[in-house]
Amino acid sequence: MVVRSPRESLAVPPAIQRRLEAAGLRRTLATRAVLGLFLAHPDGTLSHAQALASLTARGLDINRVTLYRLLERLAACGVLRRHTDGQARTWRFGLAALETEAAGPRFECDACHRQFRLPQAGASTQAVADGLIRTLEGQGHRGLRLDLAIRGTCADCVGAGDSTGATGNT
Ligand SMILES: [Zn+2]
After folding, report:
1. Residue 127 lies in domain
2. Which of 15, 58, 80, 160 is the right S-S partner for 98, CB 3.0 to 4.6 Å?
3. How many A from CA of 167 to the centre of ligand 1?
4. Cα dist. 102→52, 72, 79, 117, 119 in Å?
């Protein structure tokens, strides 16, 4: 059995931090410990009982009702996802996919105003965004969001020549 110090805490990714702040959830010791549990195994799921056992093993004294409410609140604000364990009919919790929020920068065409997502640039964009947000957080700024948008002329409109007509499709 590995007993870890309860002071050990993983960095809370900005995407999660933003959701906590949007939901008005304070980063208490219990919240950080619960998040640490899931961040340590991003692909895993835990039942309430398993989470309680792990937290207790890590030296956190948390009431089972308090933990249950915390898990519910984290699920409600989109940090955790919740699904039923078919056989045992208990809830299991896992980290919600945060990639949707980091779906990459937007590109908006000045001519036709269509928006294009660049999901293939999501990872590198997120790395840049995380770095910028960490820098700002280090300066004491809070509630940071980054909306990266690129503007220009889309391939269709470029193909339509200098015409910025509505259709561009003749
Ligand atoms: Zn266009």
Report:
1. 106-159
2. 15
3. 9
4. 31, 24, 14, 10, 8
CA 98 to ligand 1 centroid distance, Å: 29
- pLDDT band for position 7 (cuts 50, 70, 90): very low
**Higher per-residue confidence, 117 vs 122:** 117
Q: Looking at the DSSP assignment, which residues form a beta bridge with residue 95?
A: 80
Last residue of a domain, one of 40, 72, 95: 95
Q: Write down the pTM of the prediction.
A: 0.54
Task: Identify the pLDDT of residue 117.
Answer: 76
CATH number at residue 115: 3.30.1490
Q: DSSP character for 79?
A: S
Q: 45, 73, 95 — which closes off a domain?
A: 95
